[in-house]
Write a structure and sequence with these properties.
Length: 535
RNA sequence: GAGCCCGUAACUCAGCUGGUAGAGUAGCGGACUUUUAAUCCGCGAGUCGAAGGUUCGAAUCCUUCCGGGCUCACCA
């Protein structure tokens, strides 16, 4: 038994629980049975109490509160539906079974069966005739206690350290029902988006995560290597170019909910891997896509909140269509910046005047974007579509039908956060080649995020792609807004963190140095072993 | 990458201008047959993020490092 090794560093609480584990076994209670007797959801019993009072019922879940009173014990079980109280009496269970309760802890999983009743103080409760341990917990959970003070719910305890909450999400989830709720909402958002697109004849597809050439966005990629092909592969930064190849192939409406990977900084709105919804519709342009985005967003807001208002960080907006649509140049003019020419020299002068740094190697479009971000973006409370970006910034967007300096593009903002980006997709292969070449020049001048030239994509366009509207939507950001989460980390179950230095000392001890090393050796030796092995 | 802040028991935190640690919850022991932050009595629990330095003496002061948060920058 490696138990002794685990004990010392983990402290007295783990030690006590290990002792109780043995106590359970000694009393003939299997601490980790394979199955559970059937049980009802806690909420079903509470809500259906009117009809169920006095009936035999069973519940199961995690022990989240425990109050012993000598020959009586009250505890609360929490399952996926909610909480319910269980009342256990020595008189009902018999002295021998009742004594087993001393080996229970907060955090254990338990099944209990008995009569449903209401206590003197009014709480719906199962008066247990029998119980079963379903799984023993060896580490203490920082379970919160709640009290009601003057009608307000006051929570004591819980897990506050954000680092621990993100790193040990299982604890965060186990202890905070509201965190579980965020991820249920996330799932509902995803389901709604699928339903919305499926209902409009979009086909859900899957395209490569590992790509020989990355593209579809301006970003630095993660690089990896395929051994058998002996070739460099990149984790996708976007699936755009693949989806548009499908348009060439005659799939007129496609979408993908894709994990994208960008080798960039991490902050409140950026995680290195994130979920992007991209959808493309043949015979549509960016105006059509604006309408579709409006419809989609108001639909998902209705789905989640029941209304059309969204509140985030103390601000409330109404997402009912139509949203404001403002071109980049108009917005700048409104902000007092009049841009006569999209030329490098006057723009640079303008940026300098505003006290902005002009990155070396920045083209006219980039400078315009800088000015925009500084003067306009912070004031965009939304919902709003910012449209018609300069060509240079949008190498995959079709030139604007009335102004060749611009493209037919929009970015959608809510609360100043950009959550969608869309174009009338560029389907002129010759223009696309020129744009790629311009990007290559930017790259040569040191822009690490310049788009790569993708010959196969150009070849695809040369076969002919219908006029198409396309949208990329940041799902995580959308979920942030829908759940009132201030950080993207609150809507990603396991956000990227710096690796923990080594393993926890007590876990090292539990596994044993030698065993850990063994395991690694075995894994590394495996391929060689199978080559020359018994088979 | 820059600035500010944080890291003390399982959890939430206190520890002033240096004298090697405290509270509540959780845990352990005891009392208690309708409690609900149950209550009452008692007890234990900590490489004070890490390493150096100053000092007779460091959780406390200094330096560096590690990890995190916020703001900014970067990032459509």
């Amino acid at each position: 038994m490696p138990l002794s090794n685990t004990q010392a560093p983990a402290g007295d609480q783990v030690r006590a629980r290990l002792a109780k584990l043995e106590g359970l076994r000694r009393s003939g209670e299997e601490p980790y049975p394979h199955v559970s007797p059937p049980a009802a959801p806690a909420r079903a019993l509470v809500e259906g109490f009117g009809d169920l009072e006095g009936s035999e019922q069973a519940v199961r879940g995690r022990v989240v509160a425990f109050r012993g009173h000598g020959r009586t014990t009250f505890l609360h079980l929490e399952d996926g539906s909610g909480r319910i109280q269980v009342y256990l009496r020595q008189a009902d269970l018999g002295a021998e079974r009742y004594a087993v309760l001393q080996y229970l802890d907060l955090g254990d999983f338990l099944w209990a069966g008995g009569t449903l009743f209401r206590t003197r103080s009014g709480e719906i409760t199962v008066q247990a005739r029998e119980f079963r341990v379903l799984a023993k917990a060896l580490r203490p959970l920082p379970l919160a206690k709640e009290e009601v003070v003057g009608g307000a719910r006051v929570v004591h305890g819980g897990l506050g350290d954000r680092e621990v909450r993100y790193r040990r999400r299982y604890v965060d989830l186990a202890v905070h029902a509201e965190v579980r709720e965020v991820f249920r909402t996330r799932a509902r958002v995803l389901a709604y988006l699928r339903r919305f697109l499926d209902g409009r004849d979009f086909l859900e597809v899957e395209t490569p995560v590992l790509q020989p050439l990355y593209g579809g966005a301006a970003a630095r990629p993660f690089t990896t290597h395929h051994h058998a092909l002996d070739t460099t592969l990149y984790l996708r930064i976007a699936d755009e170019l693949y989806l548009k190849r499908l348009l060439v192939g005659g799939l007129e409406r496609v979408y993908e909910i894709a994990k994208d990977f960008r080798n960039e900084g991490i902050d409140r709105t950026h995680n290195p891997e994130f979920t992007m919804l991209e959808f493309y519709q043949a015979y549509a342009d960016y105006q059509d896509m604006m309408s579709l985005v409006e419809e989609m967003v108001v639909g998902v807001v209705r789905e989640i909140t029941g209304g059309t208002e969204l509140t985030w960080r103390g601000e409330t907006v109404d997402v009912s269509p139509p949203w404001r649509r403002v071109s980049m140049l108009e917005a700048l003019a409104t902000a007092g910046v009049h841009v006569a020419e999209i030329e490098r020299t006057p723009l640079e002068a303008c940026a300098r005047e505003l006290g902005l740094d002009v990155p070396t190697g920045a083209g006219a479009g980039k400078i315009l974007d800088e000015i925009f971000k500084d003067r306009v973006e912070p004031a965009l409370r939304g919902p709003v579509f910012v449209t018609d970006h300069p060509r240079e910034l949008s190498p995959l967007a079709k030139a604007h039908r009335t102004d060749q300096r611009l493209t037919e593009r929009f970015e959608a903002f809510l609360f100043g956060i950009e959550f969608a980006n869309a174009f009338s997709e560029l389907n002129d292969p010759l223009d696309q080649r020129r744009r790629f070449e311009a990007q290559r020049e930017l790259g040569a001048r040191g822009d690490a995020e310049a788009h790569a030239l993708d010959e196969d994509y150009l070849r695809a366009l040369e076969y002919g792609m219908p006029p198409t509207g396309g949208v990329g939507m940041g799902v995580d950001r959308l979920v942030m807004l829908l759940t009132g989460s201030p950080s993207i980390r609150d809507v990603i179950l396991f956000p990227q963190m710096r690796p923990e230095e080594g393993r926890l000392p007590d876990e090292d001890d539990a596994t044993g140095e030698g065993e850990g090393r063994d395991r690694q050796t075995r894994r590394e030796g495996d391929p060689a072993g199978s080559e020359g092995g018994a088979c």
